[in-house]
Amino acid sequence: RNSAEKFEFQAEVSRLMDILVNSLYSNKDIFLRELISNASDALDKIRFLALTDKDILGEGDDTKLEIQIKVDKEKRIVTLRDKGIGMTKEDLIKNLGTIAKSGTSAFVEKMQTSGDLNLIGQFGVGFYSVYLVADYVEVISKNNDDKQYVWESKADGAFAISEDTWNEPLGRGTEIRLHLREEAGEYLEESKLKDLVKKYSEFINFPIYLWASKEVDVEVPADEDESSDEEESSETSSSGEEGDEDTEKTEDEDAEKKPKTKKVKETSSEWELLNDVKAIWLRNPKEVTDEEYTKFYHSLAKDFSDEKPLAWSHFTAEGDVEFKAVLFVPPKAPSDLYESYYNSNKSNLKLYVRRVFISDEFDELLPKYLNFLKGLVDSDTLPLNVSREMLQQHSSLKTIKKKLIRKALDMIRKIAEEDPEDANNKDKKDTEKFGDEDDEKKGQYAKFWNEFGKSIKLGIIEDATNRNRLAKLLRFESTKSDGQLTSLDQYISRMKSGQKDIFYITGTSKEQLEKSPFLERLKKKNYEVIFFTDPVDEYLMQYLMDYEDSKFQNVSKEGLKLGKDSKDKDLKESYKELTKWWKSALASDNVDDVKISNRLDNTPCVVVTSKYGWSANMERIMQSQTL
Ligand code: ADP
Ligand code: MG
Known about the structure:
With 627 residues, the chain is an alpha+beta fold. The protein has helices spanning 11-21, 30-52, 89-98, 103-114, 190-200, 228-236, 241-253, 290-301, 388-393, 396-417, 423-426, 430-433, 444-462, 467-472, 488-494, 510-514, 520-524, 535-543, 567-574, 576-585, 616-624, and strands at 5-8, 67-72, 77-82, 134-142, 148-153, 158-163, 173-180, 208-221, 261-273, 311-317, 323-329, 349-353, 356-359, 374-379, 477-478, 502-506, 529-532, 546-547, 550-554.
């Protein structure tokens, strides 16, 4: 077209598209759920704006917030239309090609290593999945603030934008036309599209319609029975048709006596609703199946791996602040969960007010350390017709946050309680508490710990109110854990009589720590020592001072007491001169003190950190700045 303006895709986007076009990835189905998810986002946006300005929805069909899918078998086109917010010319240029999202290169990398496209939506580049099935795509869009435009591209490094003077006016919203590739013909089948919507998009909160053919009985004048209509209808109709035709013929023969009409089957098309728009969180938890929760999680988290979430919690809060919420623990942590920890405050909860989606970037809903959770909150207490900024300040949010944290920690605690293999349950005889049906829960807490343990530790550091609750969730190895994870409760239960402190040691690995001279005496005396080998543990232990009635004691630090030993005093006396000599021999800015030690057995001497000083491990961490 002459009037079209040409643009080049941003380099990373272009690369992504190249890979998609040439991908041998077999699951090309994903394009549909990505388009539906975008349509749903666009509808959420216009519905949100309409809260404060009703006129924004326009009138007539434009007010219907829905998604429509249609196929044109002859032209091999699949069309998706939504009545969402639409895109201005500038939006089209930016969103579909020139501004690379931060996830673009991360996704390209991931795709090259794993070949898995399933998570494309999580990386914010879902739209481009259309090129798995189409070689030419048109996006027609109309936003209230601009004219109607067409974006088009054959994935050849460039796209074009033109003012739309030839298509039907959309009113508002977006229409996406996929010109299917040769091998993607299956997506012209209604049954295929229906299956896909059922499978991936069941929990979209807007109606999804398919322009679907349907067989209907119609009365036609008997003498016009050779019309071509009939032939067309028998072409698309299913087997069993022949019998019907026979009956028609008999009717025909009697035509004289009967009115001059007859019944034929005709295929006509109509909009068929494909999803149940009743929001899952409004339903009674008892009536929602595990499978439904899993599917809901997949669609909410855009995580379409085969894995189930590790846990979920669906509840209603009542009282001053009323809300419903569903929280999920994902099966896996995203690879950048801790990379961006200190820079981003983005929670993964979606906030709805009275069924209307408000935002998924509300940082007031959960503390940072719980950002790995996915889910949603729908509140009836929050006001609807105020700006996001004002909502952010609303006093109810504090209450919501508090309750969400409690529920989240309960949910995590339950993963452990229901896991027959978790440290806290191991002592209990399997038959006592767990049946065969609990097999599925075996090892779930270790899995949780492996993925999100660090978040629990960060929680202990950051959340003084819930520190004790979080400490219960800690798992670690120790001199007595036999290569397995153990807990503080277990440690306490194994404490020697008279033992006051919980002993721990920090370092880079268990192997290194096991050889440490600091452990000699403790081991010999049969005390248990916890190994903390994660860099974050050093920080953790600056905040975790005690648990139940015991204090934590770093065995490489000053202050280690292993119960009274009558020899201590004598030793101190008889080696008085030697310790004096040592102290003067070592420059005083290198050591604070020289003492007789009760922690050694074979090793003659050891360097110990003063009570408030950095441990050797901490020194090492600070030097390498690994956190
Ligand atoms: P994401 O949905 O994660 O933002 P996508 O690649 O799926 O990433 O979409 C890119 C952007 O294109 C969206 O953020 C949105 O701004 C815009 N977009 C895509 N589809 C639509 C649509 N149907 N209506 C309005 N905007 C859309
Ligand atoms: Mg998307």
